[in-house]
Amino acid sequence: MISGKFAITIHILTLLHKFPNDFLSSEFIAGSINLNPVLVRKEIANLKAHHIVESKEGKNGGTKLAVNAAELTLKQIFEMTFESIGLGFAKNQPNPDCPVGKNINQHLEALYSEMNQKVSAQLEGISLEDFSNQF
Amino acid sequence: MISGKFAITIHILTLLHKFPNDFLSSEFIAGSINLNPVLVRKEIANLKAHHIVESKEGKNGGTKLAVNAAELTLKQIFEMTFESIGLGFAKNQPNPDCPVGKNINQHLEALYSEMNQKVSAQLEGISLEDFSNQF
DNA sequence: AAATTTGTAACATATTTTATTACAGTATGA
DNA sequence: TCATACTGTAATAAAATATGTTACAAATTT
């Protein structure tokens, strides 16, 4: 779940923000995303590990936001689901006997690191509340 | 080849820039990237389609740069290999009967579009020559 | 006690990426 | 002119990754 993780997580959080007084079930959330409920629960497990949401087991259980949506930034969500942005690396270890191969990944990393800073700055300026209130 | 395309292409171009007077074979290039030569030729086909390199078939054939490395920007390479950056979408069509599901992709696209602008601005300021001269 | 839900593991399927094989076509140069 | 060494490309295979499903124990409500 590399490409969908961020999108699914922000979808979940937007729903939780829209229903602040309810514990939403994974099945309900899955119905909005059109995704298997087990995968929703897996993303929720990640959110729980970061103390962003709390869940209640058992009948009428579900999940709700555990933080202030105005204080949760998209940057935090990004970091919980993506780690870092970039344009990728060649899969195999490049040839260490070639001056280019030996250093390419290091230079790509530097480039991507700068990209991350720019993207992070953008995402830091947007709260979950901001995002959710667009709907 | 989503994640590796940019990295492989810039690796190819850096090598071509380092040997401006030679036609480099796909096998030589593949040896530096540690990649199958057929995949190198595929990326070269893409570069040829954009008139960035020229190839010579036959014995002693290979590929060389066809543009000025000082004028080729990483943004152009990005656009030839990645199209756009972003944090992904959920794979399935979200529920159109849910106000959140109905609009989430549109809002994500707007967010990613802004990300792209920032990243493009960064990459536009770096030429292949700049990148290659780091080595 | 019955019903409903989370949490999680195990497994299955689908998709995407990467690698390989094969070979026709082209240029070089002995 | 013939052997050699390349490109170009298609077809296929293998590997890796992402997504989906099933199953069921544990928890909680009514």
TrEMBL record, chains A, B:
<dbReference type="InterPro" id="IPR036390">
    <property type="entry name" value="WH_DNA-bd_sf"/>
</dbReference>
<dbReference type="InterPro" id="IPR036388">
    <property type="entry name" value="WH-like_DNA-bd_sf"/>
</dbReference>
<protein>
    <submittedName>
        <fullName>Transcriptional regulator</fullName>
    </submittedName>
</protein>
<dbReference type="Pfam" id="PF02082">
    <property type="entry name" value="Rrf2"/>
</dbReference>
<dbReference type="InterPro" id="IPR000944">
    <property type="entry name" value="Tscrpt_reg_Rrf2"/>
</dbReference>
<dbReference type="GO" id="GO:0005829">
    <property type="term" value="C:cytosol"/>
</dbReference>
<dbReference type="GO" id="GO:0003700">
    <property type="term" value="F:DNA-binding transcription factor activity"/>
</dbReference>
